Amino acid sequence: MTRTALVILVVLSGVLLGACGSSPTASFYTLKSDAALAPMVSTAPAKPVQVVISAVTIPGVVDRPQIVTLVGDNQVALDEFARWGEPLKANIARAIAGDLARLLGSDRVSVFDAGMDPANTWRVRVDVMRFDATPGEAVTIEALWALVAPGKSVPVVGRSLVRQQMDGHGNDALVSAADRALGAVSHDIAAVIQAGSPQ
Q1: Are 162 and 184 within 8 A, CB to CB?
Q2: What is the CA radius of gyration of the chain?
Q3: What are the pLDDT digits (tens) for 175-188?
Q4: Architecture of domain 27-196
Q5: SS3 breakdown of the chain: % helix, strand, coil, rounded to 5?
Q6: How far apart are CA 65 and CA 68, in angstroms?
Q7: pTM of the model
Q8: Which of 66, 131, 173, 177 has the lowest CB atom count within 10 Å?
């Protein structure tokens, strides 16, 4: 190998190593219960309400690890470096369970029915029809939900459509707006549970 070829090889190796060292790393995000929610009643019920989030469905377009945003009427963008920390439908179920626990003043709200008395447990199904995030603008969530009261077989059904403005730009603002939007959906669900539960 000539001296010139060796110098070129060393320079190219340095460039490649520099490129590898500067490649971006992924950031991971998680939805959480909306901390701004307050209990819907001032005193805790004599008997805590039991609720199980039995199922959550989401549109296939957002059912992926990457955060998906709207960039046009019929175009979406997947951010390879902004990802959900767990499957989105499971994360939504946990966020709604946390919201309902706050709103109903109950520590008996879960995504699992282990330890729950079936005869005294509300069952909640949430079908998210839209989970649209427009960067720097808003998150829109449209959800159809069905609640089966303890001892009943016919569900109470409802629909929530929430558009929550983002407080800024970037993925932190997007996820925070999604937390608040899910909190509004949870409020609609909690109102039905509270109305149908003995006080």
Answers
A1: yes
A2: 23
A3: 999 999 999 999 99
A4: 3-Layer(aba) Sandwich (3.40)
A5: 35, 35, 35
A6: 9
A7: 0.85
A8: 66
